[in-house]
TrEMBL record:
Lineage of source species: Bacteria, Bacillati, Actinomycetota, Actinomycetes, Micrococcales
Record-linked CDD domains: ABC_DR_subfamily_A (cd03230)
PANTHER family linked: ABC TRANSPORTER, ATP-BINDING PROTEIN, SKFA PEPTIDE EXPORT ATP-BINDING PROTEIN SKFE
UniProt keyword list: ATP-binding, Nucleotide-binding
GO molecular function annotation: ATP binding
Any Pfam family matching the protein: ABC_tran
Domain ABC transporter: residue ranges: 22-247
Protein name as it appears in the record: ABC transporter ATP-binding protein
Domain of life from the UniProt record: Bacteria
Length: 313
């Protein structure tokens, strides 16, 4: 029996109904005395592109290992398509996990990877894979050990895209990819996802590069979820106010300040959520309002919440 799936208008299998694709409740992962994932409760809804973001060592890869059944949680309940993922073929056949450190048999060439992919991924699209192989210029008959770093990354990206797995993880897939190849990856992911909706989790440090792809953002730090919000809500949740310092200070005095910057008599202050009336007030005070990039927003909100966490600890 397969994991619950349903046909979309495009005829592609996707997780059924509105049941969560992934559901974690009070999940922790400890390595000896060190807690890498700390009491995480998180839901990933199906049919969305999620960004899993966070600083080095935050716990992103560990979390993905737990969700993809490669490791056991020390505590808590973890469900993927409603079932526990570990040692569960029904769930695992619907997951594709592309990671930078992917290992292949010593004597394998890319052609062996592409030949074996359909055994693992029931929605594998050979024609799409062929198109991507040409576009990313991956040599099919060279030993994988001899591939350049970028070619190796491209191999993973092609498998991840052409697998069309209902739940696909890309853990820092861009490492080694040049700017042209990264853009190609983003373009093909978005086009293919539009035609074949599925649940995608993208872990990356290049937040602004993927900002337009992301529908939902999860930020993790020291094993805890710092942010779990729709990207659109996040985008509209802060604005930078720029102008003469005294006017800016007066305007932000009663508002939630996320970040302050400035030089000489000029100030640039990022504040949370401005409504139409606030915007009119800023305009009449001669202040400029600038949008905040997703990356800046995440960095600023993360700093504020890290401080709150530290104070409450
Ligand atoms: N097998 C392990 N044994 C001990 N500690 C581990 C193990 N695996 C991960 N850790 C620790 O858990 C923490 C989270 O690591 P993880 O690889 O999940 O971070 P990450 O967010 O993916 O980081 P990066 O962005 O640098 O790849 C780190 O402090 C790491 O050293």
């Amino acid at each position: 029996m397969n994991a619950p799936t349903t046909s979309t208008a495009h005829g592609t299998a996707a997780p059924a109904s509105i049941a969560p694709a992934v559901q974690l409740t009070g999940v922790s992962k400890r390595f000896g005395g060190f807690t890498a994932i700390d009491d995480v409760t998180l839901t990933l809804r199906p049919g969305r592109i999620h960004g899993l973001l966070g600083r080095n060592g935050a716990g992103k890869t560990t979390l993905m290992h737990l969700i993809t059944g490669q490791d056991f949680a020390s505590q808590g309940d973890l469900r993927v398509f409603g079932e526990k993922p570990t040692e569960n073929a029904r769930v695992l056949q619907n997951i594709c996990f592309i990671k930078e450190s992917q290992r292949y048999p010593d004597d394998w060439q890319p052609k062996h990877v592409f030949r074996s992919a359909p055994w693992f991924f029931e929605h594998w699209d050979e024609e799409f894979a062929g198109q991507l192989i040409d576009e990313f210029r991956v040599p099919l008959n060279r030993r994988i050990k001899k591939l350049s770093r970028g070619q190796l990354s491209a191999l993973g990206v092609i498998v991840g895209l052409a697998s069309r797995a209902p739940l696909t993880f890309f853990d820092e897939p861009y490492l080694g990819l040049d700017a042209v190849a990264r853009q190609l990856f983003y373009d093909r992911l978005l086009e293919d996802y539009a035609e074949h909706p599925r649940t995608v989790v993208l872990s990356t440090h290049l937040i602004d590069e993927v900002a337009n792809l992301l529908e939902h953002v999860v930020v993790i730090d020291q094993g805890r979820i710092l942010m779990d919000e729709d990207a659109d809500v996040l985008r509209g949740s802060a604005t930078t106010v720029v102008g003469p310092r005294t006017a800016v200070d007066a305007f932000v005095a009663s508002r939630e300040v996320l970040h302050r910057d400035g030089i000489g008599g000029l100030a640039s202050v990022t504040v949370a959520g401005l409504g139409p009336a606030d915007r009119a007030e800023a305009a009449s005070a001669g202040l400029e309002l600038a949008p905040v990039s997703l990356q800046q927003l995440i960095v600023r909100k993360t700093n504020v919440r890290e401080t709150e966490f530290e104070q409450s600890a």
